[in-house]
Structure prediction request, 271 residues.
Amino acid sequence: MDNRPIGFFDSGLGGLTSIPHLFNALPNERVIYFGDTARTPYGSKAVSTIRQYSTQIADFLVSQDVKMLVIACNTISATCLDELRSKISDIPIVGIINPTADRIASECDQDNRIGIIGTKVTVSSGVYRDRIKKLNPILKVFDKATPAFVPLIEEGIIENEIMDLTIHHYMDNFISQNHIDTLVLGCTHYPIIRKNIERIYPSLNIINPSYEIIGSIAQILKDKDNLAGEDNNRENVFYASDLSENFSNMIYKILETEKSNLILKFKNLDL
Prediction:
């Protein structure tokens, strides 16, 4: 038994979309979350900058005595996972990409046409495509950078015409020209607009990495005998580098909880 919290981090609020799935699967676990809202989005930044920021956040979470680090961000997972694992070897570090790629490779076949949407950095890295094709070379995989989604979501521009028009702008031709039937939300912000996408393209089979990562987390904790006990009274703490009203509101919305159940803190990690 290990009642220490799990450390989650993301470039902003997108990684929050994994937390409800964690609590549903492992209700005794507690988290310390860090969203780098002051420096988001990461998806259009230089890889060297992303690595610098990610190392700062990881070091901070380790200092909070977490038992595991979860990179709840596709951009960071695509660029920094191996480097972070080499620097921090005493606790497990889980990236968000491989669990999803592994599921697609095992469940899809040559008749499927798989689309990946994500940030510029994630898509240009080719990590989803390469991982899927390595495991199942017959699969047809297409990807598309959709960089405007993250800043719109961070600003709370979600359930309105602006977001729908942006979805149409990026995805209409991508889906129709490539005959996409399976869509991977290759950024943890994107589940927040999943309902928009489902309404516009109701026939798509949507894969959510924010959910897929939970199986890997649970398996590692079980293998290492690090699951929390039922008497775990630790509180869930959510840090942000810019503790805006929108960030706070999105936490309560995504986690569907009352304000009294969470602790929100500001933390500036700038060098």
About this structure: The radius of gyration is 18 Å. The mean pLDDT is 93. The longest helix spans residues 161-178. Strands lie at 6-10, 31-35, 68-71, 93-95, 113-118, 140-145, 182-185, 205-207, 237-240, 263-266.
